[in-house]
3-oxoacyl-ACP reductase (Rugosimonospora africana), 240 residues
Amino acid sequence: MVTGASRGIGLAVARRIVAEGGRVCLTARKEDGLRDAVASLGPEYAIGVAGRSDDEEHRSSTVARVLDAYGRLDVLVNNTGINPAYGPLLDLDLGAARKTLEVNVVAALGWVREAYRGWLGAHGGAVVNVASVAGLRPAGGIGLYGVSKAALIQLTAQLAMELGPAVRVNAVAPAVVKTRFATALYEGREEEVAQAYPLRRLGVPADVASAVAYLASDDAEWVTGQTLAIDGGITLTGGV
């Protein structure tokens, strides 16, 4: 199951799962985009359930739908994330701050809880959380988003300790990836932004999907509680 999967990184992860022979449930807020994403994968390989990740009933009913459709749930990818607040922390609307933490952190915990109780706890499996390099070090303008992703990274480590050995829990921390979500960070100046990266390019969704596929697979069966930076080397320079 991949949350926030109607486009961008989430859809790339879903494509990788299908390419490797798996079946996947996608979630997203908007029904139209979700329908298109499922159609692009093929209804024999994918189903979609529309709803908000911060809605407890949606989380519960989605896990039930997965188990009804596929009879199992081996991997949960927490990809849903929002960033409605931009600017210095002291200037932010606290309502937006609460919403960010609710979606980016609390909902992720809620998804793990539902998946664990529904299947993973008894049968084992893997969780991969999509964090951000902004959760590894401070970044101008997106401070609250970084705070939420730092919390998600810590949540990853804590859950790995609590849910082992049945469930492995890891995270990926992408830098700027060319998605609609990150457009404001590079639009109109992609080459300039890319020059700060040792690999001299921005990421694409498939870069992240490859790392998620590894962490979800048996190849990573002795890896848990880790956060893998998918960053083109930007954190080597002190940047985000």
Summary: The mean pLDDT is 95. The chain has seven helices and six strands. The first helix runs from residue 8 to 19.
